[in-house]
Amino acid sequence: MGEGHSKSRGSKPPPLLSKPWREVNWGDNRSALQYVKNYKPHVEGQHIRILLYGPVGAGKSGFINSVQSVLRGRMYTQALEDNIGHDSFTKKYTTYKIQKEDPQSFYPFVFNDIMGLEPIKGVHVDDIKLALKGRVMDGYRFNPESKLSEDDRLYNNSPDDNDKVHVLVCVVPASTVSHMNYKTVQKIRDIRMEASALDIPQVAIVTKIDEVCPEITNNLQNVYKVEYMKEKMENFSAEVGFTMKSIFPVKNYHDEINLNSDMDSLILSAMTHIITAGEDHVNFKKNQSG
Prior knowledge:
Distance between the termini: 46 Å
Low-confidence stretches: 1-9, 82-88
Strand order of the largest sheet: 2-3-1-4-5-6
Number of helices: 7
Radius of gyration: 18 Å
Strand content: 5-15%
Mean pLDDT: 89
Helix content: 25-40%
Number of strands: 6
């Protein structure tokens, strides 16, 4: 997926802050894990739909698989990933449900994975806007040249609340988070404007943080101590408009065969925020409708 390595910034290592600028309960994931596992929407029959978008190779599918692995307590792969291609591996609009211990029971939140953003090709921005409104049905094959038409059999003419997106998540790799292609940045801004108009909360996931510098590679607990990492997140915040409190660095499971407590801590930190944001959005819309 075009994973580049920028492990060093010359001979001088990035300075470490004396204390982390964001607190994480390293080594104690029980409360966060139970929050995610026990989450139940206040609205009966409701689920939280989480739509992931971002540049090609950012790790959208990897994040979905990582969340599933954490919740299942073992390595799990459902969303297909690609490690060699430079074009988007995801071609169809797909909903991923996460199964609980009971095979007939699922968590009340779902992920949607889409084709990656590219400066020229990639997913059509208007298709993402339609997905936000619940207009895109599962199985729709993305066409970079044209958006989904109303007469298409996979166009949802009557979306209900569960078809619509409740949290929009932008996934970007740490290596390019502060210097993305201008056209890609413009597409992200365009999508963010549409989501804002629909009152949809937005979160950013910064992946591949272990490729930023050796200090994080060797110890994930340094992620909020490496000043260079914070600068990257601040630059991204200024460029596309995400608030710092809505940006979460993670390392997806990629070549590991066993779960890692520090990786789980970062994944669960992001997921608790995503679920809370989705719950707040559902309740806000419910109150608005009376």
